[in-house]
Amino acid sequence: MSTDTQIQNVAVSLTVNGEEITGEVEPRTLLVDFIRDVADLTGTHVGCDSTNCGACTVHVDGVSVKSCTMFAVQAEGREIRTVEGLTDGDGLCDLQEAFHDHHGLQCGYCTPGMLMSASYLLDHNPTPTRDEIKNGMSGNLCRCTGYRFIVDAVEATAAKRAEAQEDGQ
Ligand code: FES
Ligand code: FES
Question: pTM of whole model > 0.85?
Answer without folding.
Answer: yes
